[in-house]
Amino acid sequence: MSVEHPAVQRTDFDQVIVPTYAPAGFIPVRGAGSRVWDQAGRELVDFSGGIAVNVLGHAHPVLVKALTEQAHKVWHVSNVFTNEPTLRLAKKLVAATFADRVFFSNSGAEANEAAFKLARRVAHDRFGPEKNEIIACLNSFHGRTLFTVSVGGQPKYSDGFGPKIEGITHVPYNDLAALEAAISEKPAPW
């Protein structure tokens, strides 16, 4: 039995969604591999790949099978539980990389935020609370949280939200002289 849905158009986005993003002027309704089809049946190539978050393509049979199998078991558990697929993946990542442990997050912004916090925490613990400086490139993008937009160095994303996070210095991309000048002290040997 199919479920009837009221018709929606791209213009509805402008009426009911907060304009954080400006999506394309069409709505994809089906995908296969790197291709998507819009509401009018037009076939397009999806070059965005989930903006590097999910570059697995669309509707791959192996992924559909795995998702379907998991959907019949457990859909979602909060971080007050763990689950078998997460533990299996974590063990594979630890075995295949330099890492001793894994941090899973829900988005690139959350992953970057955790990396910035971890860098500050390590510097704090090893060198003291005054070691909190982050040097980043102007016009970069690391996500939409307050910390990540502050590190990104794009005022259009960070202005207007109150005091900015301190300890962030921005330099032009690929300007090694500016980077060297921004370093407040030579790093201590590890």
Helical stretch count?
7
The number of E-state strands comes to 5
Query: Main sheet, how many strands, which sense, barrel?
Result: 3 strands, antiparallel
pLDDT < 50 stretches: none
Helix content: 25-40%
Our count of domains comes out at: 2
SSE class: alpha+beta
Distance between the termini: 63 Å
Using only C-alpha atoms, the radius of gyration works out to 22 Å
Verbal overview:
A three-stranded antiparallel beta sheet has the order 1-2-3, with no helix packed on it. The protein has a two-stranded parallel ribbon with strand order 4-5. By secondary structure, it is α+β, with helices and mostly antiparallel strands. The model has no long low-confidence stretch (mean pLDDT 90). A hairpin with a 2-residue loop joins strand 1 and strand 2. The protein folds into two domains: 64 residues, Aspartate Aminotransferase, domain 1 (Alpha-Beta Complex), CATH 3.90.1150; 75 residues, no CATH class. It starts with 9 loop residues before the first helix and ends in an 8-residue tail after the last helix. The chain is built from seven helices and five strands, in the order αβββαααβααβα.
